[in-house]
Amino acid sequence: MDSNSVHLLEQQLFLTFIKGLLDSKHVSSTHTEKLQVLEVGCGHAYFFELLTSQFSNRLSVTGIDRHKEGIDAGEKRLGTRLGDHRLIQSSFLDFEPQQKEAYDVIIFTKSLHHCPPLDVTIERVYNLLKPHGLLIAEEIARIPTGETWLFDRMEILYAADLLKSNRPHQLEQVIKSSDKPPMERWAMLFGHHGHDHQHEPLATMEDILISINAKFGASNVRQHGNLPFYYHFFAFAGLTDTPLGANILTTLIAQEDKAIRDGKLTGQGIIVVAEKL
Ligand SMILES: C[S@@+](CC[C@H](N)C(=O)[O-])C[C@H]1O[C@@H](n2cnc3c(N)ncnc32)[C@H](O)[C@@H]1O
């Protein structure tokens, strides 16, 4: 991995987390064929890049995103490194793989809460999975919090001119609102930026779990919560993509992890794994 890239570094923790799952899935499969993996909402394909480079000979990965910009950027950056893996512009519900029950693993990288209607999405995931296939969703729990951990650090990075956001006015508003509660500042950071928020409200974690449990059966669903997540916000706010930015992000991830383990911070990250039996 290019440890100097903020964007790749940002994706590494989730990959480390699910590596064991992918390894055991591979061992329990026929060994002869590559595992078929679909990543939904791959954005600019940074997680896709890590996944395909670190598991190149064991996986065949298709990354989809509804926006052309990210797919084009991913194709351009990866070039011939794309190999037999594929990046496709498509909304999940419009995506038509060549066969039914096509995938061993379907991964949503911070994208499931963007995919309404949720029940239809989960039904489709289920139908696209092979028997014993896995749904893995990397999500944000959005647990209401009064902690200022995130914005205290963001203010310092902003003062040091290390946040190169493509929404500078929005970021400035967030930074200047230190008198506002943290949840309000989150909303400012993500709320009205035209990134991808459709008219329907984003699905909550509770909605997501209800929907997955109903389709997969609660006993086939596991959740791993209280995980670091705020570090993504620094990348989202435009933490400079330089070796310095990467060093800062490494430090922030370590600080967040420690604060959670010490019980001083709520881990907003959650990973849900569901198996189709
Ligand atoms: C929060 S971003 C995450 C991007 C990337 N996976 C990451 O981890 O940095 C959510 C992504 O999901 C994509 N997305 C949202 N709804 C989608 C849908 N219905 N089908 C495919 N992609 C979708 C958006 O275009 C966006 O790139």
UniProtKB/TrEMBL annotation:
Species: Bifiguratus adelaidae
Q: Where is the signal peptide?
A: none
Which positions, given as ranges, span the membrane?
Answer: none
This one is known as Methyltransferase domain-containing protein
Q: Which residues form the Methyltransferase domain?
A: 32-146
- Entry-linked InterPro entries: Methyltranfer_dom, SAM-dependent_MTases_sf
